[in-house]
Amino acid sequence: MQYWYNTKSGQVESEVDDERARSADLLGPYASEDEASRALEIAREKTERWDEEEREDDNWDNNPFNDKG
After folding, report:
1. 57: helix, coil or strand?
2. CA distances from residue 56 to 5, 32, 44, 60, 66 in whole angstroms, order as listed
3. Per-residue exposure over 13-51, b if at least 16 CB sit within 10 Å of its own CB, e if not
4. I need a labelling partner for 33 at 20 to 30 A (CA). Which of 11, 20, 49, 59 fits?
């Protein structure tokens, strides 16, 4: 079964929930209810990791039009 985190209600919803919110309000799918309940924490961790990877990549913005000077 799959689960989603509803960003508007703060509730976990399952794939069998007839009242499941619109996709724009959902994070997921997740494999478990517990994982879905941690959706915001998981998203924050992923974003921090991606931001760090970008900082470590000296060439992430290799567009010459963005060069200063």
Report:
1. coil
2. 31, 33, 18, 9, 18
3. beeeeeeebeeeebebebeeeeebbebeebeeeeeeeee
4. 49
Single-letter code of the amino acid located at 35: E
Amino acid (1-letter code) at residue 52 = E
Cβ neighbours of 60 (radius 10 Å)? 9
Whether the per-residue pLDDT at 69 is higher than 60: the answer is no
Residue 49 is predicted with a pLDDT of 94
**Residue 27: strand pairing partners:** 5
Please, how many CA atoms are within 13 Å of residue 66, restricted to the half-sphere of its CB? 5
* Residue 5: CB atoms within 10 Å: 25
